[in-house]
Amino acid sequence: MVLVLNEEQRMVKETAEGFFAEHAPVGQLRKLRDSHDPDGFDRGLWAKMAEMGFAGVAIPEQYGGAGLGMVAAGLIQEAIGRNLSLSPFLSASVLAATAIAKAGSDEQKAALLPKIASAELIVALAADEKPRHQPHFVAARAESSGNGFRLTGAKPFVLDGHVADRLIVAARTSGEEGAPAGITLFLVDPKAAGVSVKRRAMVDSRNAAEIALEGVQVDGADVLGGIGEGFATLEAALDVGRACLAAEMLGVSGQSFDATVDYLKNREQFGVKIGSFQALQHRAAHLFCEMELARSATLKALTALDEGDARAPFFVALAKAKAGDVCRLATNEAVQMHGGIGMTDEFDIGFYMKRARAAQETFGDTAFQADRVARLLNY
Amino acid sequence: MMDETPELQAFRAETRAWLEANCPEEMRQPVQGDGDICWGGRKWRFQSEAQRLWLERMAARGWTVPQWPRAYGGGGLSKDEARILAQEMRRLKARPPLSSFGIWMLGPALLKYGNEAQKQAHLPKIARGEIRWCQGYSEPGAGSDLASLRTSALPDGDEYVVNGSKIWTSYADQADWIFCLVRTDPVAPKHLGISFLLFDMESPGVSTSPIKLISGYSPFCQTFFDDVRVPQENLVGTAGKGWDIAKYLLTHEREMIGDMGSLGRESMHQIAKRSIGTGRDGRLKDGVLRADIVRHEIDSYAFALTMERVKDEAKAGQGVGALSSMLKYAGTELNKQRRELLMSISGSDGLSWEGEGPEEGDLAREWLRSRANSIEGGTSEVQLNIIAKRVLGLPGA
Questions:
Q1: Which residue of B has its CA nearest to A271?
Q2: Which of A296, A337, A371 is the mutation pick for testing B, counting most B CBs within 10 A?
Q3: Residue B372 parent element (H or E)
Q4: Complete domains list, chain A, with CATH
């Protein structure tokens, strides 16, 4: 497939850009943060996202989704990045939907996917256990018990965990702590006995929770996929999430860059626009080139996922590594070029730098992805 | 190729058969040295009969310049047909039959700006490799500030009299003709007094001397013009409008130089494995260098994907402005970084300057040669200026 958006995708892009700018601009994030909103996102917005077809963008049509694939999901996530819009899109529509569609039984798919698409059900992924992403490190245990399993363990970083109606928990049914084999995925009700959910306040004002499982009883029917075979599903879901995070970072970079170029054209010092200074011009031009490189890598990753290309993991790692680096540069340059005002809470640019950092850390930063690239290139 | 029309499928089959029958075996071997690709011209000495034959056969079909009109020695192929020809040549590992500044630079400029007589006079000879061209742009006093050039061409009867000097004229000592930026109006504002003039390097008053570079190569010359008389009909376009042609040509040149960033990834891998070695986990033993290499690989792939995206977008009628500047900047910086890394990876092996093997000294010389990538065709800083001004719309100083 070619690296250019088709008619349908261009429409998704246009619609999403307009939608988030109108219904969930960065001011909404500020309001939710300042009011210490218990949900941390606007449920009305999430419902509208379902009406627009966004919540089920990548869910197959037979399960109530739009079946538009990952390029379209990436375009939505990029618009989210531009506006720093808050919603459970990444956890429910991207991560959980991918895991369920890949590994779920027909009953599970029919029960869960339509409700994700209609925003009736928030499903969150409880996988990471280490502060630095290490997906195959799973110490949480699942022991046979009755007609199912008893889960015990800790998941300190679950995106949207405190608003989730259902969790996908990675726990070990066999094998050593760090081994990919022996990981099994379970659908867990967060209201079940033994589950405790503690909301975490994050630097980017996003929703995340620390979740502890103390002998939580789950039914055998709530295993997602094969026993001991959860890692492949987890990796597939994570890769889709990583590619969408790369897309989000394009949006974060793009918006902070546009705001910065605007500022360079308007701010005067020494009696001239500061954008006439070559020291700033060159840095802005360099950043522009870098953002174009990140855009190509990200589009390739999303396209490869849609095509089921065997090299998709390589392109995903490439995209997240590059987009992460570029996003860090873009937001840091934005604050620097805005000068003192860039350091104030009143001005929006700081929100972008905070989100850049969090998005980079989520599901493997540039160093993590670069190491994957190196291994896949056989270095 | 499932979506190819029956016509294109037939063209592919026909092309494949013709190439297989007509491309000599020697011309399917990997390119090793400078002489392996024919640059043509009156002074060219064919390395082999096969090289001569390959050029002659391809030129007879117009396939040295597949997309130029047939009337000027081209193949008259559509974009799709040209793509198929290129694919089929790659499939056979066929060498390009001819490479030259005439093909890449002057040809496109003449097709756009030349008059009928000029096209008839020059394009077929470029296509057949009979005349080799060089480019007279930079001057000792006009580098990044190219438009301040001072080589003058003053009218005298039905001729211009050219005086001045050009520098960094690639392969001027081997070229037959020069396309040259000259000042025909000494009083007009600097961009407006420039014209685009063609003349024979054998004209009385032309002399060249090669410049030896840090790489030990001498691909560049300084060229001197001392009362060189050129017929006025050799002026391309309108007098005083040469800067437009110059800019158009520079765009082609930048794309060409920028493209080098995406070449030759394989050898880095081979050299690294051999020179550094791998540990029991299969990873390169030097962790710091491994990180440097992979950062570079990430950028190389992102750049190659950008080239791919740019081509796809152009086909779809979309695209970003000042693209050539972006690609030139990113591509050349990447190539320089790559050459620097190859030197690091190779250690003392990379320090060889000359020796018995045909490739001895190549690493060091290519490393040094690549330093010019971000200077020639407009420095990296000039490219950043162009992006700041034309894409970002930042104000002038």
A1: B397
A2: A296
A3: none
A4: 7-120 (1.10.540.10), 124-228 (2.40.110.10), 232-376 (1.20.140.10)
Q: Is B156 helix (H, G, I), strand (E, B) or coil?
A: strand
Report the DSSP pairing between strands B206-211 and A141-145.
Answer: unpaired
Contacts of A69 (CB under 8 A, 6+ apart): A58, A305, A306
Q: Do B326 and A286 touch (CB under 8 A)?
A: no
Contact state of A378 with B329 under an 8 Å Cβ cutoff = no
What amino acid positions of B are annotated as catalytic residues?
253
Residue B265 has pLDDT above 60, yes or no: no
A139 CA: distance to closest CA in chain B (Å): 24
Domain residue spans in chain B?
A: 6-107, 133-240, 246-391
Contact B303, A289 (CB under 8 A): no
CB–CB of A297 and B302 under 8 A? Answer: yes
Whether B294 and chain A come into contact, CB under 8 Å, resolves to yes
Q: Does B157 touch chain A (CB under 8 A)?
A: no
Contact of B297 with chain A, judged by CB distance below 8 Å, is answered with yes
Residue B379 contacts residue B144 (beta carbons within 8 Å): yes
How far is residue A128 from each of residues A243, B13, B388, measured CA to CA in Å? 18, 54, 42
Chain A closest CA to B384's CA: distance in Å? Answer: 5
Sign of CA dihedral A284, A286, A289, A293: negative
Q: What is the pLDDT of residues A279-306, one digit of tens each?
A: 999 999 999 999 999 999 999 999 999 9
Residues of chain A contacting B303 with CB distance shorter than 8 Å:
293
Q: Is the ipTM of this complex over 0.90?
A: yes
Distance of CA B135 to the CA centre of its chain: 11
State the CATH class of domain B246-391.
mainly alpha
For chains A and B, what is the number of CB pairs under 8 angstroms? 128
Cα–Cα dist B24/B17, whole Å: 13
Q: What's the pLDDT score for residue B257?
A: 64
Burial of A307 (0-12, 13-18, 19+ CB in 10 A): middle
Provide the mean pLDDT of chain B. Answer: 90
Q: Which residues pair with B231 in a beta bridge?
A: B159
CATH number of B6-107: 1.10.540
A284 with B392: Cβ contact below 8 A? yes
State the fold for domain B133-240: Butyryl-CoA Dehydrogenase, subunit A; domain 2 (2.40.110)
Q: pLDDT under 70 in chain A at which residues?
A: 1
CA distance A86 to chain B (A): 29
